[in-house]
From TrEMBL:
GO terms for biological process: Mo-molybdopterin cofactor biosynthetic process. It catalyses: GTP + AH2 + S-adenosyl-L-methionine = (8S)-3',8-cyclo-7,8-dihydroguanosine 5'-triphosphate + 5'-deoxyadenosine + L-methionine + A + H(+). Belongs to the radical SAM superfamily. MoaA family. Its cofactor is [4Fe-4S] cluster. Monomer and homodimer. S-adenosyl-L-methionine binds at Y31, G77, S128, M199. This is GTP 3',8-cyclase. [4Fe-4S] cluster 1 binds at C25, C29, C32. Residues 320-341 are annotated as: Disordered. [4Fe-4S] cluster 2 binds at C263, C266, C280. GO terms for molecular function: 4 iron, 4 sulfur cluster binding; cyclic pyranopterin monophosphate synthase activity; GTP 3',8'-cyclase activity; GTP binding; metal ion binding; S-adenosyl-L-methionine binding. GTP binds at R18, R73, T104, K165, R268, A269, R270.
């Protein structure tokens, strides 16, 4: 298949594909899947509506063959809740042109799977952890899980040889006092910590601007204790701004999607577990790829569909958020647990 470099309406290329493999999770983080909404009767996707491993692999093959995608991130829900996940990684790893497979996880199942995942071809994990305080963490994750369960997962990933980053969502009035302890801890551990501003993804997490602890506030807190300097990005389109601690060889990052939006370089597509392609984290709905996949369309026909979707894209939600906050925040948006961040 001849490769085509896609560009959207704002001349942004398609470089990165994120694949959600399940909409289920063993946590109920208040900012993502609040327990009162995602309760025992919540209608999660039934198995026949999930893309099979064969269907996911076929799409990755098309994204790689037709558009030159090299990077894949597996996410969820909690991706390790999907049965036999290492088998999917192994299939993706065998696809020509894919040279970087990463996963975002809450980490508790890493103790069990890290070795198998590494062996299957996974290279990197981003582990989410919002506090080092047991009581606070148990409350945030909504399932009473203690910090140690995640730290054990991180250790298992390190032992297996996976590269590790840590993600911390900072919410004002909830865990902003954990910014400095987390920075100190992961500097000592030698893992890059990335602070993420609390975002208005979906419609269930009761977001408002007052709950956002901004990049500026995070930097100010850290500067009092651990001096740092900003360093340049690793590549164009990197979402985290990078900072290096002075006198050390370690760094941290900030993903400031709310206060300093980066839509102008956004080059990611997101595939939901049921096979819808989303061109923005804040989309109302996705583009159905499962129906044409199951209707036996050829690879060329599927590539044509994706081309049409990307070439029509003009999303820049975060840059527009402030223009009409009422309407932008309240309109229907896909839930984070559906497309995986
Ligand atoms: N369950 C996995 C995990 O937690 O890492 C993967 C899916 S989760 C949706 C992906 C990332 O999105 C996590 O790092 C999580 O903290 C982040 N996230 C979820 N809701 C968010 C929100 N409202 N604002 C900012 N980040 C959020
Ligand atoms: Fe689950 Fe991740 Fe969402 Fe937390 S952030 S509820 S771990 S999907
Ligand atoms: Fe990309 Fe949408 Fe986020 Fe802007 S708001 S950076 S277009 S995902």
């Amino acid at each position: 298949m001849e490769k085509k470099l896609l560009q959207d309406q704002l001349r942004r290329p398609l470089r990165d594909l994120r694949i959600s493999v399940t909409d289920r999770c063993n946590f109920r983080c208040s900012y993502c899947m609040p327990a009162e909404i995602f309760g025992p009767d919540f209608p999660f996707l039934p198995k026949d509506q999930l893309l099979s491993f064969e269907e996911i692999t076929r799409l990755v093959d098309i994204f790689s063959g037709a558009f030159g995608i090299k990077k894949i991130r597996i996410t969820g829900g909690e991706p390790l809740m999907r049965k036999d996940l290492p088998a999917l990684i192994e299939k993706i790893f065998q696809i020509d042109g894919i040279n970087d497979i990463a996963m975002t996880t809450n980490g508790v199942l890493l103790s069990k799977y890290a070795g198998q995942l590494k062996q299957a071809g996974l290279q990197r994990v981003s582990v989410s952890l919002d506090s080092l305080n047991d009581d606070l963490f148990a409350k945030i994750n909504g399932r009473g899980v203690k910090v140690d369960a995640v730290l054990k997962g991180i250790d298992a990933a390190a032992k297996a040889g996976l590269k590790i980053k840590i993600n911390m969502v900072v919410q004002k009035g909830v865990n902003e006092h954990e910014v400095v302890p987390m920075a100190q801890f992961f500097k000592d551990e030698g893992h890059i910590l990335r602070f993420i501003e609390f975002m208005d993804v979906g419609n269930t997490n009761k977001w408002n601007m007052e709950k956002v602890y901004s990049r500026r506030e995070i930097l100010e807190d850290i500067s009092h204790v651990l001096p740092f300097e900003q360093i340049s990005s690793n590549y164009s389109g990197e979402v985290a701004a990078r900072f290096r601690y002075l006198g050390a060889d370690s760094e941290f990052g900030i993903i400031s999607s709310v206060t300093e939006a980066f839509c102008s370089t956004c080059n990611r597509a997101r595939l939901s577990a049921e096979g819808k392609l989303y061109t923005c984290l804040f989309s109302g709905d996705g583009h159905d790829l499962r129906t044409p996949l199951r209707a036996n369309k050829s690879n060329d026909e599927l590539a044509q569909i994706v081309t049409g979707i990307w070439e029509n894209r003009h999303d820049r939600y975060s840059e527009m958020r402030d223009k009409n906050p009422e309407r932008n925040v309240s309109r229907k948006k896909v839930e984070m647990s559906h497309i995986g961040g």
